[in-house]
Structures are given as structure tokens and as C-alpha cells.
Design brief:
The complex is a heterodimer of chains A (449) and B (401).
Chain A: E1 18-22, H1 27-37, E2 41-46, H2 64-69, H3 72-75, E3 100-104, H4 110-121, E4 125-128, H5 134-138, H6 142-148, E5 153-156, H7 173-179, H8 182-185, H9 201-224, E6 228-231, H10 234-238, H11 243-252, E7 270-275, E8 287-292, H12 296-305, H13 320-325, H14 327-338, H15 343-352, E9 357-359, H16 370-374, E10 379-383, E11 387-391, H17 416-423, H18 428-436
Parallel strand pairs in A: 1-2, 1-4, 2-3, 4-5, 5-6
Antiparallel strand pairs in A: 7-8, 8-9, 10-11
Chain B: E1 8-12, H1 17-27, E2 31-36, H2 61-67, E3 70-74, H3 80-91, E4 95-98, H4 104-107, H5 112-118, E5 124-128, H6 143-150, H7 170-193, E6 198-202, H8 203-208, H9 214-224, E7 241-245, E8 248-252, H10 259-266, H11 286-301, H12 305-314, E9 319-321, H13 325-330, H14 332-336, E10 340-345, E11 349-354, E12 359-360, H15 378-384, H16 389-397
Parallel strand pairs in B: 1-2, 1-4, 2-3, 4-5, 5-6
Antiparallel strand pairs in B: 7-8, 8-9, 10-11
Classes of the chains: A alpha/beta (449), B alpha/beta (401).
Chain lengths: 449, 401
């Protein structure tokens, strides 16, 4: 079969492999995005009668008051309006939906299940990260997939694994990270854990390693002809990030605690210091610079850039051990010095002297960074509903098989025609019947909130 | 049989991100030859150590975790014999990964031009702080500096205080995972199409493009001009955020979307059934939210983390208890699932640690060997890779631990 190369003439590492994407929220879509960036054809079957929260946004049709009240990364839709198709341009997901295809189908009904069956027959991988039980309820089991395509690779990403008492627990990255210890290990060293913002580093790890696992399984299949079932218990996967804490406990019985911005390896100074700010934190105009000296030489260089203040030569800061002992006072004094300075200017001066330092960048400032511009990092994409915007670029630069953003964040049902007609071979009459039954559409059903 | 057991990787990385990527390759079968400088990977000297640091470079738990399943050889790449040996090994490798500062490989005479001329299908993955090009090419980072600049750290913490990072070196582990994907991608391009290429990975770009909120805060600004406020968010929903309970803390998210499930979790107490809490507009009213949360906190404080989590699981709500590492270690769910694994190290004895990153039904994860002692496999690898005897003996005499 001739595979289309929608990106032009260059090869891509995974061209010719087809992946069925039944993913929700972030961890799964990130994995399939990485695979799509490497050239796999990723196709999303999406049910226009069911909306998975936090997948194409918080709700299919969020009221404006909800968006205005939500954090910007959830509520900041184009022009600050829900618009006619909010599911096509919620900032929660759009960046993860490049290079993918979407078609709509209600796989709970027999004719929908048949369309999915036909797609799976022509696919190499099925990837899902739904709450435990969801796929079983839909009848999408490894046995069913294997009966359609014996060498299928099926990836599942249950939060805590498919066995054991926690197997039914629902979780986003932030919850399973809490269980693995992250939330008590991060945050200010002088505040309680409720000062921690919800983060999703576990989605990063499981997403990237899920893409890696798919490639390992494809490599294995090329050699042996056999497909397989992959289970990524997301909590177990996240544990690698806390290696130091885990090994300190298993080797030494030490239970580590949150140490704020200090260095887990004990090298000082290491902190986030105020810089000259054009406005307040409430206006999101506060500025900060992180500085971390990892050697005595870097500390000496910092002292020189600070202009050799007398306090820096005091005994209490003379050695790393002394600086570690007196870090609060050290941080206060450095902060007094940084507070009047421009964060970028200070980074350049410190880096020129060999000191690791950089501004703590608020997201809107990323687009002004000269280094990212020089590396041509941002990619402009135009989506019919959202308009033209600059998106974050790819993870890596492959010169001979470049990651290209050839398909902008995919709209619901954008590839109905391609999937039903070209790929699955449905006739005009069959397509009309599926459309009449509500399978083929570019909108969520009116009663989906 | 393991997925990548036909692959040989020449691993010139050190510290955390690169070695974590090559450990994933090794975990799934790759023959990873870790090339260390005389004195070894600096991560050998990073804590936690088992007991006291004796200066041997063989007691770091971090180094141990990052380098299981690899073999170590020591080469002085500044010597002719070291360089020649490296090039001879590269001729037989399927992938070379390095994390020197940009320009160092070229100065050592083992850069992309040299490798590519010798073996056109061989990919080289170069990992650096900001990439091989651009004005910050030579800038330094550490976990804090990297994540503060490139990751979504600005919005972490309390509005009135400084932004605060993730734990430990989580950001470098994230980068390592993204690098492992690039390694596999480069192997596919090489194997399927004979393409060798010099892949440029900027640690910063692995965070600017990362899934943990940065992708969303940046495009939200592009879309709407809105910026994301730094705030913790506790108590801003019904329920939402981190709450104290009888023996610690529990974390809830998006429970607002499922009011019926919340009532079910609480056991349908009278206060929670008050119709005013069911009104969608009331549910966005801060005063009503505060009033509801005051009641909810009383419910939490009478229950343990595990009790609350069990009720939340039953009611199908997004919730997680905050565990310490000790809680995790003692937890029966993970222990019974076989999450923990034990490895014997020749100097440290038995080490128990977190095991498989994921489970494959064929060709999957195996722990085949502990992390290597410095230069433990120099002789073995040089012989196996058929490095000519005079060269091998020069390398070995030139300095092994």
C-alpha cells in the first residue's frame, strides 16, 4: 500500500504505522502526539454523544462565566469567548492535537463498533488511558482487538495499574503524584502542602515513556511478528522522578521532606530571587531570577558580579557547608541585590561569568525570548475555528527527518471524509446513513453539556 | 528476548537526563556501553549515598538507579588511544548519545563530521542545555534554573511568594524520557531508511514543549491575552485542592463537575443536600464555596487519608492522599503488584528500589545487572568489540581504576 506523506518528501521515522488514539486528558494525548511528530498516522475516534472532561476542554459547551472564572490555561479561549465550537480550541488540549486526525463515531452502537473494527484491522497500535473499566464497558478488550488484528499492540495507562485495591481509583497526574510522594516532597519548606499548585509531571513521564514503549513494541514486532499488551501504571511510572527520595528511604531509612527551591545535592546558594518588576504578582508582572552556584568557583564568580560586597566575604559564607548552614540569610542578602536588576540583563551577566542563572519566565514572555527565536522554535498554525497562532515547538531537532506541524490542532470530525470513505471504504449511501444516525458530524450532540 | 536486544548504544552521557534515557534503552534490552572519563561520571559523587560517602564513587544511590543494566568502560578521550578506541567502538554501534557541552565532541576529534564520514547510517544524539546553536548555547543550567526558565514554574506556589520548583530533579527525569523517545526515533530512521543524523536536543526545549501545563499557558496567552496566575487553589471549589485530614492531607480536583458524586462520597449528610449548593451559579460564588468548604473540612478532619480516599474511589471522584516515601514503601497495593525490586551491588549489598517503568507482555523490562563499578567492563567490552590488542592494551595501561 502507498502511504500518504502529508508533510512532503522527507522520510519520518514512524511513517507507515497507524495508531488508533482512544486517549483522554493529557498523558495519553502527549504520547500519541510524540508518535505523530515522528510520522505515525494517529487517528482519533471521537464520540459526539460523550464528552470526556478535561480532554477537549472542561466541558463541551462551557458557559462564559465558567471560562472567566477558570485559570487562564483552562479558560483562555480565542477572543475570550466560548464561540460556536469550544471543543476545537480550548487551550487545555490544542497543543497536543497537532499532526493527528479525528473522525466521529459512537462506538456504543453496533454500526459504530463496526467502523472501529474496520479501522483497527488496518492499524498497528491502539492507545488508551481512560479510567479503569471504561474500555471494558465499551467492549474494547485486548482479546477483541487481537481477534481483529492478531499482531496489534494495545497500550493501556491505568493510574495505579489494572490489579490491586487502587485499580479503580480515578486520578489525574496530580493525584497519583501525591500518592508517590511528590506533593509532600515539593513546595516551600516553611508552609504546609496546601500551598502547592496542582501539577502534572506524571503525565509528562508516562506520556513520553508510553511513546517509547510503543516504539519498543514495534521494534519487537518487526523482529518477531508478535504484537502485545502494554500496561503503564502511571503512578509506578512516575516514581522515577523521586529516585533520590526513594533510595534515601530504602538505603538509609530517611524520609525526605520539601526543601523549597534548595538543591537536593546541597550546593549553595540555590534559590529564586526577586528581580526588578514592572508590576505585581496579581497582575502577573512580578519577575524572579533563579541562581544556583554548584561549585566554589561559581560562588566566587557570583561574588565578583555582585561587586564584592563585604558580607559575601564573611566567615558564615566562606565554604559550601557554611553557606548551607546560613542559607536563609544568604538568600535574603542575594535577594536585596537582585531586586533592583533586570532579570534578563542579570542572566547574561551571570552566565558570562559562568554562573547558572535564568529568569523564571511567565508564559507570555516565552515568545519574546531571542534564543528561542534564533532557533526558530515556535511554529505557526492556523486552525479554521481558532485562527493563526504561535505554538510551542517540537521536543527535538531531527535534521534529516524534521518534526513538522503539517496538521494543525485537529477539529472534531475533521477527517470524517478521509476515514469513512478513503480508509474504511464506506459507500455514499452508508455514509449518509451514518450521518443520519448521528455518527458523522463536526459537533457534539446538542444535549452534551 | 528483549525488544532492543539487537542494539548497541555508545553512551557518552553523564549526570541525570542522558543516563536516564540510556537506562530506558538498556532496560528494554539494548547493549549500552557507558563510556566514562577517568574519575567517572560526576553523578557517582551525588547523594543520596548508602551510609556515608566514602569518596569511592561507588555508593551513590542516584548513580546506581540511573545506570543499572549498563556496562562501564573508562576512556581518556583526550589521548590518541582513547579517541581511536572510541571511534572503533562507534563503528560497531547503532547509536551514539552524548551530553558534553556543545563543541566538545568536535574538539576531541569525535564530532558529527567524523562519525558520519565513518558510518553514514549512525545517528548521534547530542543533549545540551540550550541546544547546539543560538545565543544561549554555552549557558549553564541546573534543575532549578532549567525548570524556572523553560518549565511552568512561574505559576507554582502562592501569589505573594516566590515561584517554587518540583521535587528533586524531576525536570531532568522528564527530559530524559523525552530523550529516550528521540533515541528510538533515530533508531527507526536509521534501521528503516539508512538515515544517520545528528539530533539536537535542548533540555530547555524539552520543557517549553512539555505537557505539564507549559503548552497550555502559552497557547492560552496567544489565544486570549490571559496570563496564568500563580496560586495554590486550595478551597476554590466544592471540593478543590489540598485539605487537611485526621492523619495528613488529601487532594481533590474537578469535583465541582460531579456534585452528585460528592454527595455520595460524603454519605448524603443533610448540610450537603441544601438546595443552595445545587444551584450552578451559587457553585461559582466564593462565599457559598467558603461556606461549603467549612463543612467539608469538618468531614475531612474526622477521617484518615485512606478512609477519605476509599470513599472517593467508591464515589468515582478524582482524589489522592498525600503519602510520604515511607507510606509508599509500606503500601500493600504497590508491594503486591511487584513494583519494588531488589538488586545486589558488589559494594553496597542489596538495594531495594522502584522497579519496572511499565509492563510489556513481550520483550519488556528486565533488570539484568546492577550499575557498573567505574571501568568494570573495560577489558570485557574491548575484547568483545574486537578492539585490536595493541590499542586495547594501551587504553588499559593508560589508566583504569
Amino acid at each position: 500500500m502507498i502511504w500518504p506523506r502529508p508533510w512532503g518528501s522527507s522520510h519520518k521515522p514512524l511513517e507507515g504505522y497507524r495508531i488508533v488514539d482512544l486517549c483522554v486528558v493529557w498523558a495519553g494525548p502527549f504520547a500519541t502526539m510524540l508518535l505523530a511528530d515522528l510520522g505515525a498516522e494517529v487517528i482519533k475516534p471521537e464520540n459526539p454523544f460523550v464528552f470526556a472532561p478535561m480532554t477537549r476542554g472542561p466541558m463541551a459547551r462551557p458557559p462564559k462565566v465558567l471560562l472567566d472564572n477558570a485559570t487562564a490555561w483552562m479558560g483562555g479561549l480565542p477572543r475570550n469567548e466560548p464561540g460556536p465550537h469550544p471543543w476545537n480550541y480550548s487551550p487545555t488540549f490544542v497543543s497536543l492535537y497537532r499532526n493527528k486526525k479525528s473522525f466521529t463515531v459512537d462506538i456504543r452502537r453496533p454500526e459504530g463498533r463496526e467502523a472501529l473494527r474496520r479501522l483497527i484491522a488496518q492499524s498497528d497500535v491502539v492507545y488508551e488511558n481512560n479510567a479503569t473499566g471504561t474500555m471494558e464497558k465499551l467492549g474494547v478488550t485486548y482479546d477483541w482487538l487481537r481477534s481483529i488484528r492478531p499482531d496489534i499492540i494495545f497500550v493501556r495507562v491505568p493510574a495505579y495499574g489494572s490489579t490491586g485495591p487502587y485499580s479503580t481509583a480515578r486520578a489525574l497526574g496530580v493525584h497519583l503524584e501525591g500518592v508517590m510522594g511528590h506533593t509532600l516532597l515539593r513546595g516551600y519548606d516553611d508552609a504546609d502542602p496546601s500551598a502547592n499548585t496542582a501539577i502534572y509531571s506524571g503525565d509528562y513521564l508516562a506520556g513520553a515513556q508510553g511513546a517509547f514503549a510503543v516504539m519498543a513494541a514495534l521494534w519487537h514486532r518487526e523482529k518477531t511478528g508478535e504484537g502485545q499488551l502494554i500496561e503503564i501504571a502511571q503512578a509506578e511510572n512516575a516514581s522515577a522522578m523521586f529516585t533520590q527520595a526513594i533510595l534515601d528511604y530504602t538505603m538509609n531509612g530517611i524520609v525526605q521532606k520539601a526543601i523549597g527551591n534548595r538543591d537536593i545535592f546541597g550546593r549553595y546558594p540555590c534559590g529564586v530571587y526577586p528581580a526588578k518588576s514592572p508590576g505585581t504578582a496579581e497582575e502577573m508582572l512580578d519577575r524572579w531570577i533563579s541562581i544556583h552556584c554548584t561549585t566554589d568557583e561559581e560562588w566566587e564568580a557570583l561574588v565578583r558580579v555582585m561587586g564584592e560586597p563585604a558580607w559575601a566575604r564573611e566567615e558564615r559564607f566562606a565554604t559550601n557547608d557554611a553557606r548551607a548552614q546560613n542559607y536563609r540569610e544568604l538568600d535574603r542578602l542575594i535577594g536585596e541585590w537582585t531586586a533592583t536588576q533586570d532579570d534578563y540583563d542579570l542572566m547574561h551577566r551571570l552566565q558570562a561569568a559562568g554562573v547558572p542563572a535564568a529568569p523564571v519566565l511567565e508564559a507570555s514572555r516565552v515568545f519574546d525570548d531571542p534564543h528561542l527565536r534564533a532557533r526558530d522554535f515556535f511554529k505557526k498554525q492556523t486552525q479554521l475555528d481558532a485562527g493563526t497562532h504561535e505554538y510551542m515547538g517540537p521536543m527535538w531537532k531531527f535534521p534529516e527527518t524534521p518534526v513538522e506541524f503539517y496538521q494543525p490542532p485537529v477539529m472534531l470530525g475533521e477527517h470524517n471524509e478521509y476515514v469513512y470513505r478513503d480508509l474504511l471504504g464506506y459507500s455514499d449511501a452508508e455514509i449518509e446513513a451514518l450521518r443520519a444516525a448521528g455518527h458523522i458530524t463536526m459537533e457534539y450532540a446538542p444535549d452534551v453539556p | 528476548m528483549q525488544a532492543f536486544d539487537d542494539i548497541t548504544v555508545l553512551d557518552l552521557t553523564h549526570y541525570i537526563a542522558g543516563p536516564y534515557a540510556t537506562r530506558l534503552l538498556a532496560d528494554f534490552g539494548a547493549n549500552v556501553i557507558k563510556v566514562e572519563r577517568p574519575g567517572g561520571d560526576p553523578a557517582r559523587r551525588l547523594p543520596p549515598f548508602k551510609g556515608e560517602d566514602d569518596g569511592s564513587g561507588e555508593r551513590s544511590g542516584l548513580f546506581f538507579y540511573l545506570n543499572c543494566n549498563k556496562r562501564s568502560i573508562v576512556l581518556d578521550l583526550k589521548s590518541d588511544a582513547g579517541r581511536e578506541t572510541l571511534l572503533a567502538l562507534a563503528d560497531k554501534a547503532d547509536l551514539v548519545v552524548e551530553s558534553f557541552r556543545p563543541g566538545v565532541m568536535d574538539r576531541l576529534g569525535i564530532g558529527w563530521d567524523v562519525l558520519h564520514a565513518r558510518k553514514p547510517s549512525l545517528p548521534l544524539i547530542s543533549i545540551s542545555n540550550f541546544g547546539q546553536t543560538g545565543p544561549y548555547r554555552d549557558y549553564k543550567v541546573t534543575e532549578l534554573v532549567l525548570y524556572g526558565f523553560a518549565g511552568e514554574m512561574y505559576t507554582m506556589g502562592l501569589t505573594e511568594r516566590e515561584p517554587v520548583k518540583m521535587a528533586g530533579t524531576a525536570a531532568l527525569f522528564e527530559s530524559g524520557s523525552a530523550i529516550a523517545v528521540a533515541c528510538a526515533g533515530a533508531l527507526f530512521a536509521s534501521k528503516r531508511f539508512g538515515i544517520g543524523q545528528h539530533v539536537d536536543i535542548s533540555l530547555a526545549e524539552t520543557h517549553f514543549g512539555g505537557v505539564d501545563r507549559r503548552h497550555a499557558t502559552t497557547i492560552a496567552y496567544q489565544f486570549s491575552g490571559r496570563k496564568t496566575l500563580r496560586q495554590a487553589g486550595a478551597g476554590r471549589g466544592m471540593p478543590q485542592g489540598i485539605y487537611p485530614c485526621a492523619d495528613g492531607w488529601v487532594d481533590f480536583t474537578n469535583a465541582n463537575l460531579y456534585p452528585d458524586r460528592v454527595i455520595d462520597m460524603l454519605g448524603s449528610p443533610e448540610w450537603a443536600l441544601d438546595p443552595k449548593y445545587a444551584d450552578p451559579l451559587n457553585r461559582l460564588n466564593p462565599e457559598i464555596i467558603d461556606e461549603w468548604n467549612a463543612q467539608f473540612m469538618l468531614w475531612c478532619i474526622e477521617r484518615t487519608r485512606r478512609e477519605i480516599w476509599a470513599e472517593a474511589r467508591r464515589a468515582r471522584l478524582l482524589c489522592g492522599p498525600l503519602f510520604t516515601t515511607q507510606d509508599l514503601f509500606e503500601d500493600e497495593h504497590f508491594r503486591n503488584r511487584g513494583f519494588w525490586t531488589k538488586v545486589l551491588h558488589p559494594l553496597m549489598g542489596e538495594i531495594e528500589m522502584h522497579g519496572r517503568p511499565l509492563q510489556m507482555s513481550a520483550g519488556g523490562w528486565q533488570l539484568r545487572r546492577p550499575a557498573p563499578l567505574l571501568g568494570e567492563h573495560t577489558r570485557e567490552v574491548l575484547a568483545e568489540m574486537r578492539i585490536p590488542a595493541p590499542l586495547a592494551s594501551t587504553v588499559i595501561q593508560g589508566g583504569q581504576p
